[in-house]
Amino acid sequence: MSLQALREGQPAQRRRALAKAITLLESSRPEHRAQADALLTAALPFSGGAVRVGLSGVPGVGKSSFVESLGLHLVGQGLKVAVLAVDPSSSVSGGSILGDKTRMEKLAIEPNAFIRPSPSRGTLGGVASHTREVMRLCEAAGFDVVLVETVGVGQSEVAVAGMTDCFALLQLPNAGDDLQALKKGVMELADLIFINKADLDPKAAMRARAQIVSSLRLHNQAHGAQGLPEVLQGSAVSGEGVAEFWAAVHRHKTQQGQAGQFDARRHAQDLEWLQERIEEGLHQAFATHPAVAAQWPQLKDEVHAGRLAASTAARTLLNEFLGVKTHG
Ligand code: GDP
User: Fold this and answer.
1) Where are the transmembrane segments (predicted)?
2) Do 230 and 283 have their domain in common?
């Protein structure tokens, strides 16, 4: 698998090459890992050029409809759009909230669009499993926009907000839900809020918008109006508000750039990426270490029975892992 295959040739061939490269990234076989690392290293100098947008919201709010609408708007402007879906449900239920339905049929057939659901692997780290890496490959393959979609069911929003330039939250024109999100602190992550389905009840959407704006002001009094997310409304189905959404993404990017925050955010995200992968690697090495694996079940029982402090059990296992000789 070469970088050239991602960057040269017909769009259809390049999309196939990108899909293959992602499969390579997601493989856990050591020889594939080495190939994937080589590919990433080659891709890195050509990455970073896309606008990275995160998108979240409760199931049914209209995420896939919105991504399709926005994606079509962007390809209509001659931009190349990659859509990556981060699906935290697939690890829990074995099923998938995002992946099971037929999604984005119109966008999927656009030559300048690429859609990839990413199954997550087990842990929360798995939520973002390989999305950061996949994003780099998409950028090296020439995509101008990377949209990362996730379901608003907990910490997946944190993961996606932590890997994008602009994190947008989709809301229903329903005040109760908005307060819910505020309580959870999810709105604090948002750079942009879009009240979807405004076509169903434009007045309710306006009320919701006013309410969200005032709640945001209230919660952010210390920071003043600056830095508050823009709140927009519209409809993924009619397309109303989608162009405005994209304009707001650009405004946010420009403001961040002017404040020197754009590069700072990306640098911080790169360091988080490093940290995440180290922790992931350590966890895996620990869990699969033969001496650790041999003693773990028994120590768990001891902790469970109250015969051993969890901290002591942990130290015993860590000593095994590190090969530290204990006395006595
Ligand atoms: P997701 O679960 O957040 O990805 O939501 P979907 O995009 O699958 O949308 C859920 C349902 O809401 C579908 O039946 C969509 O057709 C509908 N829907 C999405 N956006 C809008 C909108 O702006 N207006 C209206 N009236 N329906 C919408």
Assistant:
1) none
2) no
Report the separation in Å between the CA atom of 154 and the middle of ligand 1, taken as the mean of its atom positions: 20
Whole-number Å distance, alpha carbon 60 to ligand 1 midpoint, is: 6
Contact 126, 120 (CB under 8 A): yes
Asked if 83 and 173 sit in the same domain, the reply is yes
Pocket test for ligand 1, best of 237, 240, 244 (most atoms within 8 A of CB): 237
Ligand 1 center–CA 65 separation, angstroms: 6
Residues 166, 78: one domain? yes
For 92-118, write each residue's pLDDT tens digit: 444 455 554 457 889 999 999 999 876
Structural domains in the chain (count): 2
Q: What are phi and psi of 170, to 5 degrees?
A: -95, 135
CA nearest 300: which of 176, 132, 292?
292
Which range of residues forms the domain containing residue 192?
45-261
Say whether pLDDT at 125 is over 60: no
pTM higher than 0.85:
yes
- Does 180 lie in the same domain as 280? no
> Of all protein residues, whose CA lies closest to atom 25 belonging to ligand 1?
197
Higher pLDDT, 325 or 306: 306
134 CB contacts (<8 Å, ≥6 apart)?
22, 25, 84, 116, 118
Instruction: Note the pLDDT tens digit of each residue in 185-224.
Output: 777 889 999 999 999 999 999 998 998 888 888 877 655 5
The tokens describing 24, both together, are 């390579």
Residues at CB less than 6 angstroms from ligand 1 = 57, 59-65, 196-197, 199-200, 235-237
> Same domain, yes or no, for 148 and 286?
no
C-alpha of residue 202 to centroid of ligand 1, in Å: 16
3 in a structural domain: no
